[in-house]
Amino acid sequence: MPDAARTTPELFDKVVNLCKRRGFVFPSAEIYGGFRSTYDYGPVGVLLLRNVKEAWWRSMVQLRHDVVGLDASILSPPAVWEASGHLASFTDPLVDCRNCRERFRLDKLDDPDVCPNCGAKESFTEARQFNLMFKTHAGPVENEGAVAYLRPETAQGMFINFKNVLETSRKKPPFGIAQIGKSFRNEITPGNFVFRTREFEQMEMEFFVPPAESQQWYEYWCQERYRWYTDLGIAEEQLRLRPHDDDELSHYSSGTSDVEFLFPWGWDELEGIANRGDFDLTAHAKHSGEKLEYFDQAAGERYVPHVIEPAAGATRTAMAFLMAAYDEEEVEREGQGKGESRVVLRLHPRIAPYKVAVLPLSKNEKLVPVSREVLGTLQPLFMCDYDETQAIGRRYRRQDELGTPYCVTVDFETLEDRAVTVRNRDSMVQERVALADLAAYLTEKLV
Ligand code: GAP
Asked: pTM of whole model > 0.85?
């Protein structure tokens, strides 16, 4: 697909359409008319999302000696959010158009004097600060003492568990705590499909370092995180690392860079990497009365570690992988030689929902048992799809649209030669592989 087509609204519509048609993402509560900007991940979408999170966990926890995991609670008491500053200042400036009554985030308007909905000029109300936290009550009595909040980020779970992890994990700075999980923000203007929603998943890591090393680790994590996306197949032309201008920086941050992806509507954020200094641990130490510091025995000194935080969105990143992988091309109709166009998701095998599809050439009673046998051999190794209805060409197209890297076709020759046809998604080249070698052949290509 030409690069210019990657920034058109058509690409956005095509991907959203594909998501619904193939079972990646459904609008939530659809049979009740939907619930604004909430989405459910269907049979294929849930695999994609799990793969994104698994790839992140593998790179951030499994392949490192200096990062451990955590799964903190979603509900927490007001004290946490008072200390973090969220209750006081996790706000967006909100304006209403007096003409059409639509509501906007002031900082996201192209022109702060013109309503993008009705075109009215200077029709906005004064900006009001709107807190994005979801408030609820824990227990049967809905009074002030029972107030709790759904977390708007996973990060605070890592800060408030700093001492627990330090004491139990035998780690010392520099070390990190990583977490993947749901976060909730009452966004004023959710939109662009799953890009900005009120319920979403984050993948965050807090890396605690000696203060003197913070700049060096900040630069390290900026490069590492950029590389993660390119290693998983996002082209460098569609990805950039953008340092924040001074006026964008949070008051506690001495440096923040965003990893941005070229979405159909332009460059937008996938992840922020921030040098947060000692802001978080100091704030929680002050509010909780607990000492949140590290005693370096060798140097005989006590200090509050500084924090480098790479904070990514899992749902948003899954969408970027889909946008980057979407391709259309003219191909020979397989077996018939006529031209046709195909849609293919060129997803990295690690991200692809299914790694392999097992397809008996037909539903013939002789082919099905062998196909099931092949499926049984591959299932413990890879997430597999199995499909025995429709013409084989149409089934290949379906797997192309799901991004399945390999299709294994069981045909009548298989019954004679105990071999199958393996079709490569990207090249569409077919190879004959002996059943006895199939698992090793695919393992070499996929793992
Ligand atoms: N702890 C820092 C933090 O939460 P953030 O930039 O607000 O930083 C990190 O969020 C990432 O979470 C973003 O880069 C984005 O990928 C994702 N994210 C934030 N708000 C989101 C929303 N409403 N919908 C989907 N993803 C969101």
From this structure: yes
